[in-house]
Structures are given as structure tokens and as C-alpha cells.
Write a structure and sequence with these properties.
0% strand, elongated
Amino acid sequence: MPAARESLLDAAFAALERGPWPRVKMSEVAAAAGVSRQTLYNEFGSKDGLARALVRREADAYLCGVERALSGGSGPAALAAPGERLAAAAVWTVRSASENPLVRAVLTGRWNERLPTSVRTTPPGEPEPLPAPGELIGEARDRAVRLLEGDWPPGAVELPLACEAVARLALSYVVAPAPAADVARMVRTVLA
């Protein structure tokens, strides 16, 4: 039921935008998705299961956005220099975290009472725990290294080190907010 699953996750995210997670009702999520409450429970098992799936989806979407930024998209931007692509990934990180409280929480490890806090621990039998903040930033760094290694200029700072520095710089802008454009300027300065 991939379509029902996505509809349920979309409905859960919309419910979270309207109010704190503890007040989100499973029956309201199911109704908003146009499925029965039983379908919701069959798909996720519990409210905690729904929360874990929602956080996982948002973390995966964040990483997909990092990859899009690093690949340069299409058109003239696809020809962007590796440093510009790293800057774009840093800007994506800051924007994504500022617009999505779940991404911000996963990146920083700072969960508040509005969010599904039960997802921070992995229940027994859970196949894949949610990433810790360092793991998510590490995954973003590893994807940057993989996507930029063929284009990285010889003689420039070591690619893994540059990717790590940019990921951590972006994270600092998430923790201490500033305009997303500032992070791009800072990345360009650091890589120059």
C-alpha cells in the first residue's frame, strides 16, 4: 500500500504542523488520508510507529535534497563548480532545517514537546534505528565526497575534510540561525 502509506505520512506531517504531536489523533490522520483507522494501524502498528516512519521519511528527504544540491540539478547549474555545489548543499541544510522541525530535530538532537519524542529510542526488533545527529551529518558528508570526487580540483583542500567542514558549518547555522545565503558566502570563503 505505498500510496496509502504516503498519504498517511502526509496527513501526519500536516497534523504536526497544526499542533503538537501528543495531540495528534490517529483517527484524524486516517480520515485526512482517506483510509480507515485500521489501515493506519496495519501500516504502522502504533502512533510511535507512525512517528518513526514520519521522521525516517523526512530524514531521507533531507538527504535526497543534499544529493540534488550536490549533483547541481539540470541546466546551467549542473555545470557548477564543486565548491558551489557544496555551498548549495549547505544552503539546503539550513533551509530544510528552518522549514521542517523534524529535520531540525534529527540534525541537532534537540526535540521539543511539540515533536514525537518517543522516536529517539529504538524499540526492540526495530530493523533500522533513526540516525543520530552525527550520523545524519556524516551521511550527508559521505554523499558529498562520493558525488564530488571526480570533479574536485587537484591541489585543493582534501575533499573529505572540505565536505566535513561544510557539513559542520551548515549545522552551526542550523543551531545558531542566520540567513541561508550567509552560509553559502561562508562556504565560498572557507573553500577559497
